[in-house]
Amino acid sequence: MPHPEPHPAPEPSEPSDQRPAAADPAAGPPPADCVECGKPTAYPATTPGIVRCPVCEWQEAQRTACSG
């Protein structure tokens, strides 16, 4: 039984920390950048106050939970 051909290597994609320059306007407002690390967050850029990415949010919760 012949061996199947190996799958071709996937095309390299853009790094995850870079967003495309032209965003789809129907997708909504662009995400806000994290105030600590600068990565995109799950919140829109119009969100008031301190906005953190999930990782920084978790780290801040850990710091404040044990500070008593």
Report the structural category: alpha+beta
What is the makeup of the main sheet? Answer: 2 strands, antiparallel
Instruction: Report how far apart the termini are.
Output: 68 Å
Low-confidence stretches: none
Spatial strand arrangement across the major sheet: 1-2
What is the chain-wise order of helices and strands? Answer: EEH
- Report mean pLDDT, rounded to a whole number: 77
Proportion of residues in extended strands: 5-15%
| Tally of helical segments | 1
What level of helicity do the residues show?
10-25%
What does this entry look like structurally?
The protein is an alpha+beta fold and about 70 residues long. Helix content is about 20%, strand content about 10%. The protein is built from 1 helix and 2 strands. A hairpin with a 6-residue loop joins strand 1 and strand 2. It is elongated and about 65 Å long. The mean pLDDT is about 75.
Brief sketch in words of this structure:
With 68 residues, this protein is α+β, with helices and mostly antiparallel strands. It has one helix and two strands. The relative contact order is 0.14.
